[in-house]
Amino acid sequence: MGIRIGILGYGNLGRGVECAVKQTNDMELKAVFTRRDPSSVNILTKGVNVYKADDILSHKDEIDVLIICGGSATDLPSMTPKYAKDFNVIDSFDTHAKIPDHFANVDAQAKAGNKIAMISVGWDPGMFSLNRAYANAILPEGKDYTFWGKGVSQGHSDAIRRIDGVLDARQYTVPVESAVEAVRSGSDPELTTRQKHTRECFVVAAEGADKAKIEKEIVTMPNYFADYDTTVHFISQEELDRDHKGIPHGGMVIRSGVTGWEKENRHIIEYKLTLDSNPEFTSSILLAYARAAYRMSGEGMSGCKTVFDVPVSYMLDMSSEDMRTHLL
Amino acid sequence: MGIRIGILGYGNLGRGVECAVKQTNDMELKAVFTRRDPSSVNILTKGVNVYKADDILSHKDEIDVLIICGGSATDLPSMTPKYAKDFNVIDSFDTHAKIPDHFANVDAQAKAGNKIAMISVGWDPGMFSLNRAYANAILPEGKDYTFWGKGVSQGHSDAIRRIDGVLDARQYTVPVESAVEAVRSGSDPELTTRQKHTRECFVVAAEGADKAKIEKEIVTMPNYFADYDTTVHFISQEELDRDHKGIPHGGMVIRSGVTGWEKENRHIIEYKLTLDSNPEFTSSILLAYARAAYRMSGEGMSGCKTVFDVPVSYMLDMSSEDMRTHLL
């Protein structure tokens, strides 16, 4: 019997965790919990039950790690602390400014329940953060750059969809190649928001809608688009469904730093992701950290942790001997 | 008073550690130990003594972490176990096939002395290994690729210098760009040694030497060059000194893997280094792990560790709160 995984919330992320479990040899999906009517939720794995989220505590002893697949805006701030006392939990909380508060709330509950909770797991925050940390540890004098894309921003797509006359939309965040190349060259450029990314929008307008007005409303939208060079393409729903159905994403974390007695040598560290499916990649990271949480809990550790606190050896289904032989 | 660092061996790597200490706020160089005559070794840091390696044990209580800057062929296999009982030690042992033996020897001594020893620290093995491990943990189904360069291979340069009629030489390992692009595209190519890297040699021949014979001897040399497409350029000593004095290096670790119920989505994880100075970058990594070794020892841990066993939080001169606020 493997590590028994529970999934709370069955959207793109929950389904991604389910798929990721299938790719492991040391884990099994034990149960899915939903706030919807369980009979309306069809999962992919045969023989696994879907339960009401309200009944989750009665399944406490069947679950080794609960992966909370909710949104950062309203779900996770309440859900993760709520379950951290009774389960080892993992979440992907990504509201950077609120991480200290979330950490404190979750830590208190996890410690009270003698459980491990791991928050802000994913690729940003998550693997990008980890790479910023390693690069800063190695090169204390330097500059960090993060680029996102090319990829779909759900938040920006939603913002366009809320405009009058818009039926559907898909927004891509695109890094400016010349800015990326300037960073890679080691010239340490100062880059404005506009110089780092462009935004490309594919919009389905309602019959007879004022397209010029929609376009203007998009490109001048504060916070979302006003600070960027934004391109708007009007296309049909058929084209959107055919050409823009995927949820690709990715990006780069680059640190440019110096070493030497007179700081005469420069080094560039780059971590780059190119992802066909943003949610599935995130889910795969959540599951690797679920393995770590299980082991840390088994060793008697407790409290809230982040990616900074976990040695990679806890994340792999491989003995330390094999890691040293095959990966070192 | 900061973490007190000792350096054993003052070549490129030792000097790099000395420079890296200067860039920290929480460390100080306490002493340098050498097998040469100490009076012949001029270090950069004022007020720090150079001692005979034979006298190192009498300085045991002055050193928190000893960084052993020796070669993997003959120095480290004996030196690291020898000192692991009396010091927290770090080395950069890079003979992949002998890592299990070296680990066992060092582990026994470090445990006997209740010290932390960290072996095979650097970028390959080291940061490259770590990135292979993370990428394998996240994408259990996939393929790993490692490319080196463009950079100077000391071993290959030495091999050319041993040829009759050669006065000096510098060899660059160069990744084949089309192979890198094929990997990045997600096509999962099978690549032979010849398809992954080329070798470029800059050679200073003695007056009247048979250049055609030298070139043939290089390109047909077993293990070093025979399996590669090798280019040989004959240049003057002045040109070599002017254009090929640096020790740049770098490379890429790429994992291409799939997720999804039917493995329908592909993801590419790439970690790339572009280094002006191979030894100084390696030294900077050694020093970051020296910080980790000091803390782990302070928490009562002991034995031999690798990069797989260390959370990044131990490597940074930053509180966990600050890490969560500024790097997560």
Low-confidence stretches of chain A: none
Q: Of all protein chain pairs, which has the greatest interface, and how many residues does each chain bring to it?
A: A-B, 72 and 72 residues
C-alpha end-to-end distance of chain A: 29 Å
**Lateral strand order in the biggest sheet of chain A:** 3-2-1-4-5-6-14
Kindly state the number of beta strands of chain A.
14
Biggest β-sheet strands, sense, barrel of chain A: 7 strands, parallel
Helix segment tally of chain A? 11
Q: Helix content range of the residues of chain A, please?
A: 25-40%
H-E string of chain A: EHEEEHEHEHEEHEHHEHEHEEHEH
What is the average per-residue confidence, as pLDDT of chain A, rounded to a whole number?
A: 97
Instruction: Characterize the quaternary organization of these chains.
Output: homodimer
Task: Evaluate the radius of gyration of chain A.
Answer: 22 Å
- What is the global morphology of chain A? globular
Give the percentage of residues in beta strands of chain A: 25-35%
Secondary-structure content class of chain A: alpha/beta
